[in-house]
Amino acid sequence: MIRVLLVDDQALFRAGIRMLVSSQPDMEVVAEAGNGQEALAAVAHTAPDVVLMDIRMPVMDGLTATAELLKSPDAPKVVMLTTFDLDEAAARAIRQGASGFLLKDAEPEFLLAAIRTVHSGSNVIAASATRELFAHFTEAAKPVPPAYASLTDREREIFALAARGLSNAEIAGREFLSEATVKTHISRILTKLALRDRVQLVVFAFEHGLN
């Protein structure tokens, strides 16, 4: 069962998402919060797997709450909710460690699929959208860290494709590998670069000019 926390200052919006999530046999809403401060308390008390976090809220906004949450090594996955497709605040949240972002008017099926995807840790939410986001808001490239040199030639090839937003299946088809092999390569790459997930891989590539 995927435990979900809803964080948004609009009660009506939360009610709609609660109904949607609660209708799924593999999900449950364990708590709701109207601002970031309430979200931190709710996470401490309910230990959700996935947090749907609005960016703009009173008292404490979603960026501040996300930064606080992700200081913990066992933090839940955080998905930012935004009204704007290209939102600098969403880019900042992803840099802080959020697992992606969703538009508030996303199709219900996409939102549910995103929750499952993030929970499984197997892919990145809207990889193409994340790449476009960082194309707008990434500053000058930083020096490539020494850890990147530890990647094998094959791992660098897989890294480059994942950074472009390709799924495991797409990479497997292009490189004539099994999906299991691609997944193993991705896991090793994340470990070597000390990255949380594929979203962070996309961010890493953009910030160091490797995209």
What share of residues are in beta strands?
5-15%
Average pLDDT taken over every residue: 87
Low-confidence parts: none
Order of helices and strands: EHEHEHEHEHHHHHH
Number of strands: 5
Number of domains: 2
Specify the CATH architecture of the largest domain: 3-Layer(aba) Sandwich
Oligomer: single chain
Major sheet size, sense and barrel closure: 5 strands, parallel
Topology-level CATH name of the largest domain: Rossmann fold
Helix content: 40-55%
Question: What is the rounded distance between the termini?
Answer: 36 Å
Strand order of the largest sheet: 2-1-3-4-5
Our Rg estimate from Cα atoms comes to 17 Å
Question: In the CATH hierarchy, what is the superfamily of the largest domain?
Answer: Response regulator
Derived from helix and strand composition plus strand pairing, the structural class reads alpha/beta
Given the C-alpha coordinates, what overall shape results?
globular
Describe this structure in words.
The protein is of the alpha/beta class and 211 residues long. The chain folds into 2 domains: 2-136, Rossmann fold, CATH 3.40.50; 141-207, Arc Repressor Mutant, subunit A (Orthogonal Bundle), CATH 1.10.10. It has helices at 11-22, 36-46, 62-69, 88-96, 108-120, 127-137, 153-163, 168-175, 179-193, 198-207; strands at 2-7, 27-33, 50-54, 77-82, 100-103. A 5-stranded parallel beta sheet has the order 2-1-3-4-5, sandwiched between helices. Helix 4 links the parallel strand 4 and strand 5. Helix 3 runs parallel beside helix 4 (88-96), helix 7 crosses helix 9 (179-193) and helix 8 (168-175) crosses helix 9. The protein is globular. The mean pLDDT is 87.
